[in-house]
Design brief:
The chain is of the alpha+beta class and about 350 residues long. The chain has helices spanning about 1-15, 25-40, 150-155, 185-200, 265-280, 295-300, 325-340, and strands spanning about 45, 50-55, 60-65, 70-80, 85-90, 100-105, 110-120, 140-145, 165, 170, 175-180, 210-215, 230-240, 240-245, 255-260, 265, 285-290, 305-315, 320-325. It is globular. The two termini are about 15 Å apart. The mean pLDDT is about 95.
Length: about 350
């Protein structure tokens, strides 16, 4: 397991370093295509921009899904003073990006640094600083460039629609905790790469046909709606497991979702996942997620006729500065091994 753990952490850090908010995912997809090929597989890029690959096997096909797109923003207005009003991509929350560094990716390929700040951000000047509600009307991006007018900003190539990519601030602690933005869902994407490496290096033929689909539109709701191979009978999303009030999961466990906001997952799949975890001594928690939707949900909503399930390493502070643990990775990886045979 340790050689795969090292690889998963290496891939996680590489993926987190690639800006990929929904709509700006080509860099992450191209990286994944190259890595799957390096592992000895033959991936393909879907029309939507995701990555689909077969790991081999035959019969009772299962599609494992994770997503490489993240939260982010786009420029919505260039203000007269050269500051940028932004609009969220996905469920980005204005409350937890204030003071974060970011990159502005222009439509013609240029990149500039900036910082997300409250409008009039100095407490020595703004007496209402503490009472101001943080929203996408009250925060803005300050460019690290000599551009103090709308015209000067436009001269840099920055227009409405330029992507604003928040710095992930990745840290892996000596105690095994992993802290970063966008563990949802680059952590599970790295785990799927690790599982693909395991399949290739072990020389085993999977007991069933296994596909992996790394989607690129999950954060905006339609990542898993297309590109499901015709022989797939089961969909298994590998996404972040929820950690929080009213739930049992911790960052050190693999979460098995029983129900999310779209409805219950397939009874037979949930039961089989729990049995596999218990039989193999894998630390897990079965939970109901109150505010959640997965790629498997999206696929069923699009009309895919298949059983579906959802697992993932426990992640705290979702859609913010997130935290997981190496043990959560190990337990998710082991559950994939046990469940898929």
């Amino acid at each position: 397991m340790e050689q795969f753990m090292d690889y998963i952490l290496e891939q996680l850090q590489a993926l987190l370093a690639i800006d990929s908010p929904s709509g700006f995912t080509a860099g992450a997809a191209d990286y994944l295509l190259e890595e799957y090929r390096r592992l000895g597989f033959q991936p393909e890029k879907t029309k939507k921009g995701g990555v689909l690959v077969s790991l081999g096997g035959a019969g009772n096909a299962v599609l494992l899904m994770a997503h490489a797109d993240t939260l982010g923003a786009v420029v919505a207005e260039i203000k007269p003073n050269g500051h940028l009003r932004i609009a969220p991509v996905g469920g980005l929350n204005a409350n937890n990006i204030e003071t974060e560094n970011c990159r502005i990716r222009t439509l013609d390929g240029r990149c500039y640094d900036g910082t997300v700040q409250l409008t009039d951000a100095s407490t020595h000047v703004n007496g209402d600083y503490q009472n101001t509600q943080r929203s996408f009307q009250s925060i803005e991006v300050l460019l690290d460039a000599d551009a103090d007018s709308k015209e000067a900003v436009r001269a840099l190539g920055i227009t409405n629609g330029a992507f604003v990519c928040i710095e992930p601030r990745t840290r892996i602690t000596e105690s095994g905790y992993i802290k970063s933005r966008f563990l949802d869902d680059k952590l599970s994407t790295a785990i799927l790469l690790g599982y693909a490496k395991y399949i290739k290096e072990s020389g085993i033929t999977p007991a069933r046909r296994i596909y992996q689909h790394i989607t690129v539109c999950e954060e905006i709701g339609h990542g898993g709606c297309a590109s499901v191979p015709a022989d797939v009978e089961e969909l298994l999303s590998v996404d972040m497991g929820c950690v929080g009030s009213g739930l049992e999961c911790t960052e050190k466990q693999v979460s098995i979702c029983v129900k999310d906001s779209q409805g219950p997952y397939h009874y037979d799949v949930v039961r089989a996942l729990i049995r596999a975890a218990e039989k193999n001594g894998i630390l897990y928690a079965a939970d109901v997620y109150p505010f959640y939707g997965s790629d498997a949900d999206a696929a069923l909503s699009a009309g895919v006729d298949a059983r579906h399930g959802l697992i993932g390493p426990g992640v705290y502070a979702s859609h913010g500065y997130e935290r997981s643990h190496k043990e959560g990775i190990k337990n998710t990886f082991r559950l994939l091994q046990a469940y898929l045979g």
